[in-house]
## 1
Amino acid sequence: MRDSTNIIRQFLDFQSWDGVLNATIGFLLFLILIIISLLIVAKKMKYETWYFIHLVAYLAILLAFGHQTAVGRDLMDSTFVGYWYALYAFVLLNFAYYRFFRPLHNQFSFGFTVDRIVNETPDVISIYLKGRSLDKFRYKAGQFMIVRFLAKSFWWQAHPFSISSSPGDENLRLNRQKIR
């Protein structure tokens, strides 16, 4: 106001400050995610659509992080910056471990393959998996899990299942209600 600068000119000036452009892009991505999430809830879109859209949240967080540490007053103290970097590293390591390393390790260790698919009722399907040393695969009967089948048409889809076999059974039996 003192320089008689209009809001648009001031906004554009801010974009040249350290990390502000990335933070602005991150903010816009978060805003887009919120709007799309509301549309997904209203239109009951597929889980896969929701999942891939929410991957954009990771990009938004990364873009906003630099601005946060460079000009955020609460993060000016190096102790807090170290804490936030450690927290981000912890989350990133857990993400990599549980999303990539552990599922790939399980697949290569146990060699899961689909043995058979059984329509139990008009509404429930069972998928029987076989593999190597299934007695060493740790799970509990009734446990929920998200499964991705590494077939050409299915690798990008996540499917929710309940385990309906007991540890020590010959096969790992997965159940889910059919989607209509």
## 2
Amino acid sequence: MQLLVSGGTGFIGSALVQALTHQGHEVIVLTRQAPGSCDGVRFIQSLDAIEANEPIDAIVNLAGASLAAKRWSGAYKRELLSSRIDTTRDILALIRRLQRTPQTLLSASAIGYYGHHGDAKLAEDAGSNPCFSQQLCQAWEAQAMEASAGGTRVCLTRFGVVLDAGGGALTEMTRSFRLGVGSWAGSGSQWMSWVQRADVVRALQFLLERDDIAGPVNVTAPVPVTARGLGEALCEYSAPVLRVGVPAPVMRLMLGEMAEELLLHGQRVVPAVLEEAGFRFLYPQIEEALAAIYADEPSSPTSPR
């Protein structure tokens, strides 16, 4: 197949592109970075570089500014929204001008779609409670679903917190460990629906091949953990002199609304659609995921392989 991947140089996208090319697929990567060079990959900085007669079989849209990169000012909220909506709108315009309609669009979203639900288990058919991240995901998904009107199958991949070495959320979560402090946000009782990056890549490949699956798909490990549970699991790979939750008022003071939505509240999300379709996770439990991540660096969770 020939695939277009937006955000293909990011934490998830780079791993996906590597896996796709290893399978023998041809990949076009849309990126704001300077074009690189890689066998089986063509880098573009604008969708205008794609001719109308280009045979694109599927599109994976992973583009979007990081929700956790900085405090949510009014300006950054607008950037979070525009980085998702504008890219998705451009992809829809591309789909409409291509002579052959792509069969599949996998469009990234997040479990923030559900809002706050306490301890309730959330499958794809769960409702949503209003908050900024919920409104963001809802608008993003609505934009992507417009592609279905032209005959493209659309999967809305709602990612949990993606964990792996070399970047992403784990790097931020383990900063305090460098000072010998094993920590978590607030009381630590809030749920964290996580997923190992290798399983994210495998799930996306699975969805590309399964033309019977459409709509929302939770991309999270089957066994969520609490924030404290993750912190305690990480302590197994270090020797912290102190284990403590960072008080909620301190988190709010430092990070504002972002702390409230992403760190002090969470969602207990389960991947019902994937599991019912027969997908099997390599790392269903957090202990298995961390063991794989830290296999070559068992003494330090701040410097995984």
## 3
Amino acid sequence: MRAGQTDGVVVSELAQVLILRRDAAAAVPWAQKTVSLDPRSPRALTLLGDALVRTGSLDEARKAWLAASKLTEDDRIGIDRMAQAALVAADSALKERDPARAERLLRKVIAFQPENAVAHAKLGVALTRLGFAQSAAAWAKRAAELGAAKI
């Protein structure tokens, strides 16, 4: 590993730790620094998207995730595939007892598919496992509303 790579690893790891600690506001500048060190890195762009979505910057998060996946806004098939892959990975994370990872993945799915009742319900499960009962209840309620709307 070269010296510059070491700096990038440290910065990206700090961004990831802050995201895991649920301090997205502090994570955003570090994730942005990670991207500035390697603007084409899918990992850096994904970290940035994960941090941004938690701060409510949905459009910016989507742009970062699209760049990470090398997709454009008008590539509906690619976006649907990405969202489906994230949903499958979130299922695995829940089965592996990693609700924090599942939460990040499910927020990504919902950012691209806001009417996905399954993703809302699973986010409620992940948040319950993380100990955020009030947030979990809100997501579960939204999932029920979306599910009822499809009947």
